[in-house]
Amino acid sequence: MNSVLLLPTVLGGSILLTAAAGWIVDLLLRRADARHPETPLWHLLRRCRSAFRIVLLAALLRGGYRQTGWAPLEEHEAAVGRILSLALIGAGAWLTVVVASAVVESAYARYATGTRDPARVRRVRTQVTLMTRVVTVVVGVLAAAAMLLTFPNFRALGTSVLASAGIIGIVAGVAAQSTLGNLFAGFQIAFGDMVRIGDTVVVAGEWGVVEDITLTFLAVRTWDERRITMPVSYFTTHPFENWSRGGLQMTGTVFLHCDHTAPVDLMRDKAHEILLNCPQWDGRGWDLAVTETTPSTIQVRVIVTAKDADDLWTVRCAVREELVAWLAAKHPGALPRILTSPAE
Where in the chain are the domains? Predict the structure, then answer.
């Protein structure tokens, strides 16, 4: 066949075959998704359509471009073959990452659906996130190495590089000590269950929720919507508070400074009334007692409970506001006073 006709035949046939194969695979995935809606894997695998088509098209062109007999292709056969090989390796790495992510996300979704313990769900979510990123990094490194090996100069260079690999490894390890420390700290956090995505923590004097954990850094979203980014090694070398560890239920305190004549019994009844009308109070416990005294005031402590840190903050604020307002309206003499004349 004439080379002028072979080129569009090979190119067009590869494109048509790729489109047909992609359509068939997508049809099978849609049918599987319709038959098994409880399994999100088939729906997630549909995201691999583009990567699959590129892999198939690159493989078909890589195997058939020599058959065209087109003079320009024969003159640059090595360059064209290398370009197609690079495209095939890159698309294969992309397909591997997408498929692995779909499988991991599907497994996590089924686990989260069947597990009622939110702490375990957050733990698995943290581990899944880090595992997915590790797989992405490993596949990317292997793909880059495979691409470099397609160049003859790099293959020749590999022999000499292996001879000095030990020295280079020592130098690289010393130079990247902090990076490697963060990397291993990330694994320690993920599988040591120290902190998880969604945990409420107090770190460096800031209160917030862990929003993201990577192999090198951890992001905390504070109550005022700021983001604190810290190296993961900080959490393995410094103490921090994890309010979500061991359960979300929490106990908090409210402190009030009052005059010595404050009606403590009435304040105790009022605090109980405020809690009964507060929907964020979980009803587990409460208390009001005088915990300290000074020459001018007494310190009243109210203990309250809530199901999580957010509700505890709301309960504490409500008790503080309503108790102060009630004292100001009903017992103004119970508020702290500054004496400016001798007592009668």
Answer: 3-114, 178-242, 250-334
Using pLDDT thresholds of 50, 70 and 90, give the confidence band for residue 322: very high
Q: How far apart are CA 212 and CA 196, in angstroms?
A: 9
CATH 2.30.30.60 fits 178-242, yes or no: yes
> Number of H helices and number of E strands within the chain?
12, 8
Q: Which two tokens stand for residue 19?
A: 């489109």
Residue 43 has pLDDT above 60, yes or no: yes
Give residue for tokens 């945990």: 199
Cα(70)–Cα(63) distance, rounded to whole angstroms? 15
Pair of tokens at residue 215: 């192999």
Interhelix angle 3-35/49-64, rounded to 10 degrees, is 150
Residues 6 or more apart whose Cβ sits within 8 Å of residue 100: 132, 135, 139
CATH of domain 250-334: 3.30.70.100
DSSP symbol at 207: E
